[in-house]
Design a protein that fits this description.
- Four copies of one chain form a homotetramer.
- The first copy, chain A, is an alpha/beta fold.
- Chain A has a single domain (4-377), classed as Divalent-metal-dependent TIM barrel enzymes (TIM Barrel), CATH 3.20.20.150.
- Chain A is 46% helix and 12% strand.
- Chain A is built from 14 helices and ten strands.
- The first copy, chain A, has helices at residues 4-13, 42-56, 74-83, 111-131, 152-169, 195-205, 224-233, 259-271, 294-314, 317-326, 329-340, 345-354, 361-368, 370-377, and strands at residues 16-19, 61-66, 87-93, 135-138, 143-144, 175-179, 189-190, 209-214, 237-242, 282-285.
- In chain A, the strands form two sheets. Chain A has an eight-stranded parallel barrel with strand order 1-2-3-4-6-8-9-10, surrounded by six helices. A two-stranded antiparallel ribbon of chain A has the order 5-7.
- The relative contact order of chain A is 0.15.
- Chains A and B meet through helix 5, strand 7, helix 6, helix 7 and helix 8 of A and helix 5, strand 7, helix 6, helix 7 and helix 8 of B.
- Chains A, B, C, D: Its EC number is 5.3.1.-, 5.3.1.14.
- Chains A, B, C, D: Residues 72-247 form the Xylose isomerase-like TIM barrel domain.
- Chains A, B, C, D: One of its GO terms (molecular function) is L-rhamnose isomerase activity.
- Chains A, B, C, D: Keywords: Isomerase, Manganese, Metal-binding.
Chain lengths: 388, 388, 388, 388
């Protein structure tokens, strides 16, 4: 796709979902550092998300996390979003912050806890109905800390049973997106530790179940773009939770730790059709801005995904295929690197300008006064945060 | 299974396959250190393997590697084995040591190379027919070293096509065991990098295709016993390539780097029925004795697997299940650790004595004079080794 | 040391320090699960620690964490400990939970924050004077999350300056123990990421500065016993923070993830003289009992260290040295494994019985009624926890 | 250094050393794939190295490996190099490919083997005298494969003794560069596993001993640029062995796996004065072109280092320092990323053109006919390779 018009069109079409929790306080187990102006309720989170969309033109939807974003009237929440130019994205379930879940949620040895957890997942589908959300995103913190603590295979049975019940509740145009994670908060076993486990369950469930790749949830040395290519080939890539990591699940801004990896991922997405809207691949951010400002942190992240996508679109696929066929390792690598080494910032500035947006979203946001405004106005009440 | 008779019976029944290549020279990319008395042909390898079986009573089969163990008359080779009390085990294909395979074998961009590689796999099935082997073990070194070098998804298509052709050639009582490996010798992508990829292909192929878990082929932090439990639950665990590692695919003696991990693996095998012969789980060694003596290295490894199995059999499963149900994390862990902390060497000495074998296989082999005999007799000719 | 009397004497002499924070609530960034009966102040923590000592006979000192264990009268706290048969151990500084420390403490770009942090360290030395503690244990969460965030070398200069000031304040019989950690809570750089950095600073400071090895603070694949042997050879091993990990800094019970590694560590300690009191190596626990009961979790951990130590003491060092000299790899490894495979629980039961303690500390504690007592009595008030 | 003249001058001044062994065959433990036209002796290696210099203008020196590059007359070899516009760089010792070294070289339990190994190191200093080389580069494959195999601390004593003897033999303007490596070919302990060990020995030896950072020799998650900054601050960074890796010591082309990491490393080099010739930091390649063409592989690698260096030079250090002082995490990161995201290929093309070199070294080499010439002429004889 060296055709500049097509590249620009693809960039204009790309939508990146931001998560409501990125606007609230977050931290590590050692400390949560509060920031001025942080939202105090889901409505204020939507205000902030709409700022990210206003300055990037690329973030029209907002993921919710239940119960963090619980409200009495979800239709009103959806309407509030629409007024601000955004919409409700994926509904994220949370079965890890109640005391009951100490030894697991849907895989807990205690059937009462499993029932409670599954009911919460079903409630999330209700919220999808109420908000128009199409995606249920499931991440389970379930697992064990010590060898022998529980029965690994039995927990798979319990997991399968809960997933089946929720899957059967989904509407025709709703999907279940199953996330995997190597470790944390469980330290010995995790019940969905890798893409293989998520894939196997999704395969068994049916076409509405797909895998979510969180870029921070892998063992060291894992080739993430291989997984992306494999899942797209199998029709089972539901989407991404984007963030970046140097060590474990650091939840840093996407593209900040290894921009080349992000480019390789986006290249496999593009190469295997994943940028086409009909493939349904969702591009979602899932980050914690522990020490940096949150709204600009999201804006920068959206831009990082766009830059990686632009480079992926610039790869000369014909030249690449020819070099690959000829077995010329250096030439094939050089075709890819040519695109990566290109400075795509002018191109994206153009795309923005043509869409009537400031070509420099970071500077435009800084000038807008929004940060000062919320710091001044959002005083009193309880800042939102994980668990708030 | 705290019933001592049943524990002993299970230990007596366990069979561990040794690989012909463990008896030849091996090394790292830096150096192969030759050892005195190393076999010069497949027949001498079978002699050595039969020593391991003679002193352990637990290693009645020998895996072959083609073309390293190519002979004119495979029936004669099988008969030679039988005379020495052993039999031919899995046939291991080798599509990584011809110059043609520089850019891959069954996934090579060049269809001629793919044809050659697939033909080799089919030839291995012929050898299975000739030797009575039931298992075709496939490990592919295929992959790429540099981003862009080849098309990840296209390589999956080529892989699937070759596997299908070979699968369809299998006889009714023959299996295809597909191995995965994170990296090496390919350094960027590997075409079967993880259990998920192997599982997905095996599922598509059918019931005769199963996954092999090589204990040294995982990313750091991977929970291997989870994979074992998952695959057994899904009926897709074909067997093990046992060895151990501190860093990468070190191919050290099984149980020497992390004996607790080996115990946990054997516990999941036992817990999920994998010790029952009808499950068909093959316990194979796949190690490189680069600096230690090879035959005693194999004997020690067989003993290490037996000790881990004995401890797994000693776990009080009723007490474990009760502790798990009650949510008592420390108690459940303690039940497992009680078995692990038991010194099972006296029990295994008894099992051996009852089977008419010396209770101390290492000492008995050392006294036997075999090492001195082969060092004296096997002079001249070319020592066997990787590629020899 | 196959002399049983000497082995027993060494086991009787070993002291393992428990940390006050192990008795309070802890958790992951996702959730802290509260437990019944958790202490509400430093005095109650000392009560619990004294239970661990009462049932093991091996945990006579308790590490404090300032400000978590801040009291008005430290002499009174020390006296309270003495009444219960324990004493105050290392003083642990905390320069990571104030809002000021968001971008670092002693390495912060802002000199006012550095001054505040260094003053806190000096205050900890005052508390050492008041409590009779001999060891100042320093762990810094300092680091950066993003490339470019701060100047790596400048932060080293600031670190060196603060350490020097504190070092010069130490009394003659006081030590500074400097801990290193690969990552978390900082995700890009850590200012003391590895033993090399800690060692270099300690060397520059002088003989009262030594390195602390936290067994959970290393990159995957790091050989911890090598570091232990190296530091003992250099006279720079101050002590251990014991815990165990499967992935990152999981802070599980020591010996629960890799008991063989713990044995190898204790073997190097013993082999290089580190069990002799005059070496001054401190054996401290640093764990988080997130889901298991806290007091029995500490008892089990003390026992795990004792078992690893017993096995290390049982290694036949003469036989080992002879095998090493002869270059017999398998024989040398076998000498070590013989000790590891021994069930040392009967030996430790004997040591306890001879010391007038119940041979089964876990059962004895369970029978004691302490857990029920504190659950009933410690109601109202605020449970202690990280930051409490 | 936003001054374009200064940036260009720095780029013109940078020299990157290529290793003689990069021109010979190499491979993995599984297979060495031979390439057409590979040198058959050290003289032909110098021919190839001079091509890399001719087309890049930045690779004027060639590292030798003894005994791979043993010749009768080293002065003649040096003269041959000079005629072709290059010179002899570092002398690399090899104490890992003789049968004697199976259990170690300078750390071997056998004093005779240690003597032989140390003598080889001394011989390398003789070769330095004969060739005018200033640097002795030491990498030891020494280590153990199994716990108990040898005494960790005793091996450190032996290492220190050998290093001392060699250090004392160095001339006034000669250096000893000590390399560390996490693992391989030893799989349990390595005698110089990390920068801390190398640093401690160099510190003890004196000012002529410095540490070499091989970018592929670290545990997963290690922050290499931190080590670089630390060593430069301590005056102990001798130089680099550049290559890149996805998993272990893959020895791929530098900058091909993580170009952002290479940029961060070069930024710390530049920031801490390491680009100034008087600092003496040596920039050496150490790679294995197992499947790609060797001479273009070296050319591409030299260019990759140059591009990373150019980006490092373009960082606006004043703006960076201001952002760091103000604690603006996003702004500081953005200053760094601005430089990284710049396409520096036009700038380097200019630098080359101004130096009278073709702006596109890869294309110029391809056109030169050298590859075809050596493929045609270098027939017969034995191709050089590891051990050849």
């Amino acid at each position: 796709m060296s055709d500049p018009t097509a590249v620009k069109a693809a960039l204009r079409a790309q939508q990146i979902e931001t998560p409501s929790w990125a606007y609230g306080n977050s931290g590590t187990r050692f400390k949560v550092f509060a920031q001025p102006g942080v939202p105090r309720d889901p409505f204020e989170k939507l205000q902030d998300a709409s700022q990210v969309h206003a300055f990037t033109g690329a973030a029209p939807s907002v993921a919710l996390h239940i119960p963090w974003d619980k409200v009495d009237d979800y239709a009103a929440l959806a309407a509030y979003a629409a007024e601000r130019g955004v919409r409700i994205g994926a509904i994220n379930s949370n079965v890890f912050q109640d005391d009951d879940y100490k030894l697991g949620s849907v895989t807990n040895p205690d059937p009462k806890v499993r029932r409670k957890a599954t009911d919460h997942l079903l409630e999330c589908v209700d919220i999808m109905d109420a908000t128009g959300s199409k995606d249920l995103k499931l991440w389970f913190s379930d697992g064990t800390n010590y060898p022998g603590q529980d029965d690994i295979a039995a927990r798979q049975d319990r997991l399968a049973e809960a997933l089946r019940e929720v899957y059967d509740r989904l509407g025709d145009d709703q999907r279940m997106l199953l996330e995997y994670k190597l470790f944390e908060p469980a330290f010995y076993t995790t019940d969905v530790p890798d893409w293989g486990t998520a894939y196997a369950h999704c395969l068994e469930l049916g076409p509405k179940a797909q895998v979510v790749v969180d870029t921070g949830h892998h063992a060291p040395g894992t080739n993430i773009e291989f997984i992306v290519a494999f899942l797209l080939r199998a029709g089972k890539l539901g989407g991404f939770d984007f963030n970046s990591r140097f060590y474990a699940d650091d939840d840093l801004m996407v593209g900040s730790a290894d921009p080349f990896q992000l480019f390789r991922i986006m290249f496999e997405v593009h190469k295997n059709g994943g940028l086409k809207p009909e493939t349904g691949v969702a591009f979602m951010l899932d980050q914690c801005h522990n020490i940096e400002a949150k709204i600009p942190g999201q804006i920068r992240s959206v831009m990082n995904v766009q830059e990686a996508t632009a480079k992926a679109l610039l790869v000369d696929q014909e030249a690449l295929a020819a070099a690959q066929r000829s077995g010329d390792v250096l030439a094939a690598n050089a075709v890819l690197m040519d695109a990566y080494n290109t400075d795509v910032r002018p191109l994206l500035a153009e795309v923005r300008a043509e869409a009537g947006i400031d070509p420099d979203p970071m500077a435009a946001y800084a000038r807008s006064g929004w940060a000062e405004k919320i710091a001044a106005e959002r005083v009193g009440g309880q800042q939102a945060g994980w668990g708030a």
